[in-house]
Specification:
The complex is a heterodimer of chains A (331) and B (332). With 331 residues, chain A is an alpha/beta fold. Helices cover 36% and strands 29% of the residues of chain A. In chain A, helix 4 runs parallel beside helix 5. The radius of gyration of chain A is 20 Å and the shape is globular. Classes of the chains: A alpha/beta (331), B alpha/beta (332).
Chain lengths: 331, 332
């Protein structure tokens, strides 16, 4: 049984908590959050102990893995502290806000012989897994043109509104389209050059980015991410891969198996539900595989090194969006 | 009723067929004749449209025209336009306006000097879905425009389109201008700089077939144009023109050719989406005929065509330099 200590009981912490409840060889034993109501609720689900500070939780000990679901700017501090004590660490994405921090995390994991992984969860969404298989089988020929979108309203739920603070979240390129960039790197190949634009904090409560990637293979990609949709807009993600032999398209809204329309107190609502691909299932798979790697001493699926590569491309895009120039991705 | 005398110069670009059909359906139009350098094609089209075939462009212009529709290959737009302008004939020229900005300037100044009107064939300005989108935006429904994403995918054409000397370039030359024009029209601003990645990636025809263009407007709006011939031969529809417009108060998505019927045709072994949208050709030709009748300034003018071409020009320079390029503007 792998014993989990969960730090951060916001949206992602609660998602991980729900996932662990379905994982047979994991048990959440400790939960930490500044907010008493949040930590108590998550702890109650698992019969775990609730802590107001990491220090107390660490002093108590009795866990194998620290799962870091804190805002991005805090990932490194807690990951490194825990790994130095010999704990395995699973961190939500992005790994960190800069390469130096990310490298320190990976180095610390190596030096302390612990399993470290990062939540690039898109790799576990069944529609992305399926298309990756077809790409690898050669059905598309050589992938040449890739388009991805990930569009939604501004995340209004965050603690101290940290999403709006670019120094904490990194903005929409760092926090949102990092998913698609990681998937492109993983499923198609390395990126050579980036050109990007975003609102860059110039628009209140709205952020939006368009990123063009030139891959080492010669392929090009258009990556779009939005926190600019009006409040209440359904989340939507799409992709399109055009290869020399075939092309494939997916749209989470138009390909949604369930459309639910309701009207409560004269407020119409339309939801698109996808039981196979909505949040819970891919997170369960991601965490199950990580827990198995810890349990059996096998390799993690998403490595820290890969997460650094993804971060390098993301940082190149952020830089391009600020300088207005194309940016070569550093090796 | 005085009839507007229209001639058609060349069916090298297949859009000529649709424009000529629209013109021939108008009661106040007299289709005077068709010039085509290809005698077989020219006589075939003249027969189809019950009009006279001219083997000489000069003879067609001498027949006394109010307007000429020019659908040659892209390179020949410039000499055909300049010649028509000299004969005081109003012009509707196929897109892209020209193959380079120098030609575009020469065409504009020839029309200006001779006092003739010139239009560039941007049928999307007359597409009902695009017009409705523009109306919603102009009414302030989505607030101020911040960002636009445009996709103009289609199948790879054949023949002279793949010959750089006649076409001026591949997909980037062929497909950038439609959206470049709409983005400029919607955002009411001029282009400032442009970046492009692309190349001969999909079809191995020795010419660029895939391109992603990102442009910034003077007013800060930024936009991308996917101008790729991205559809494989059996893709169910041709063409695709989609825009997503992000505003301060909302988002508008418009698909110019979304309204289709889905055919699963066992006998022909194909699955096909047949658009029943009015693409825009009818409105385009009606506009041209009205411009010929009244002499008023057209919507989708030659200058609009030249401004859209500025993006293509910048995109090809960026494709070579791998850097952002400042947009070069033609003299109005």
């Amino acid at each position: 049984m792998v014993r989990i200590a969960l730090i951060g009981c916001g949206t992602m912490g609660r998602t991980h908590s729900a996932a662990y409840a379905t994982i047979g060889n994991a048990k959440v034993v400790s939960v930490c959050d500044l907010d008493s109501a949040k930590r108590t609720k998550v702890a109650a689900l698992h019969g775990a102990e609730a802590f107001a500070s990491y220090e107390e939780m660490e002093a108590k000990g009795g866990f194998d893995v620290l799962d870091v679901c804190l805002p991005t700017y805090l990932h490194k501090e807690y990951a490194v502290r825990a790994m130095r004590k010999g704990y395995h660490v699973f961190s939500e994405k992005p790994i960190a806000l800069n390469v130096e921090d990310a490298e320190e995390m990976v180095r610390t994991a190596r030096e302390n012989h612990v399993k470290f992984s990062v939540g690039h969860v898109l790799r576990f969404f069944p529609e992305y897994v399926e298309v990756e298989k077809e790409i690898q089988s050669g059905r598309l020929g050589v992938p040449r043109l890739i388009r991805t979108t990930r569009n939604q309203a501004f995340p209004a739920w965050s603690w101290e509104n940290w999403y709006q603070d670019e120094k904490k979240s990194g903005g929409v390129i760092m926090d949102l389209v990092i998913h698609d960039i990681d998937w492109i790197l993983h499923a198609i190949g390395p990126v050579e050059r980036v050109y990007a634009k975003s609102f860059n904090g110039k628009v209140e409560k709205q952020d939006h980015c368009l990123v063009i990637l030139k891959l080492a293979s010669g392929a090009i990609a258009h990556v779009e991410g939005s926190w600019a949709y009006p409040k209440g807009s359904p989340f939507r993600m799409t992709y399109e891969v055009v290869g020399t032999k075939a092309q494939v398209e997916y749209d989470s809204v138009s390909d949604s198996p369930i459309t639910l329309r309701t009207n409560t107190n004269d407020v119409p609502e339309c939801q698109f539900l996808n039981p196979m691909a909505q949040a819970m299932e891919p997170y369960r798979k991601e965490l199950q595989l990580y827990v198995d790697a810890v349990d059996h001493g096998t390799d993690v699926v998403v490595t820290g090194e890969e997460s650094i590569e993804t971060l390098r491309v993301v940082l190149a895009a952020v830089k391009s969006s600020k300088t207005g120039e194309s940016v070569e991705v550093s090796k | 009723m005085k009839k507007i005398r229209i001639g058609v110069a060349s069916f090298e670009h297949m859009h000529a067929k649709s424009y000529t059909r629209q013109a021939s359906l108008m009661e106040n139009v007299e289709l005077v004749g068709i010039y085509d350098g290809d005698e077989y094609r020219g006589t075939e089209m003249a027969s189809l449209f019950h009009t006279t075939y001219y083997s000489s462009y000069d003879d067609l212009l001498d027949a006394g025209l109010d307007g000429v529709i020019i659908c040659t290959n892209n390179r020949d737009h410039a000499p055909f336009v300049v010649k028509a302008a000299a004969r005081k004939v109003n012009i509707l020229v196929e897109k892209p306006f020209a193959v380079n900005l120098e030609d575009a300037e020469a065409m504009l100044s020839a029309c200006k000097e001779n006092g003739v009107r010139i239009m560039n064939a941007f049928p999307l300005r007359f597409n009902p879905n695009i017009i409705e989108a523009k109306k919603e935006i102009d009414e302030g429904k989505i607030g101020n425009i911040l960002c636009i994403t445009g996709i103009n995918h289609g199948k790879i054409p054949s023949g002279w389109f793949l010959d750089r000397t006649l076409s001026g370039g591949g997909g980037i030359m062929d497909h950038t201008v439609h959206l470049a024009d709409l983005i400029r029209w919607f955002s009411a601003s001029e282009y400032k700089n442009v970046y492009c990645e692309g190349g001969c990636l999909l079809h191995d025809k020795g010419i660029d077939d895939t391109g992603l263009v990102m442009a910034e407007m003077e007013n800060g709006v930024f936009a991308t144009i996917d101008c790729s011939w991205a559809h494989h031969a059996n893709y169910p529809i041709w063409p695709q023109v989609d825009m997503e417009i992000i505003g301060t108060k909302g988002v508008l998505e418009v698909k110019a050719f979304a309204q289709v019927n889905h055919y699963v045709d066992e006998a022909q072994g194909k699955i096909e989406d047949i658009s029943w949208d009015e693409g825009g050709d009818e409105g385009l030709v009606r506009e041209f005929v009205d411009v010929c009748a009244t002499g008023r300034e057209p919507l989708a003018s030659g200058l609009d065509g030249a401004r859209a071409l500025e993006v293509t020009d910048g995109a090809y320079r960026s494709l070579a330099s791998h850097e952002k390029e400042e947009v070069r503007h033609v003299r109005a």
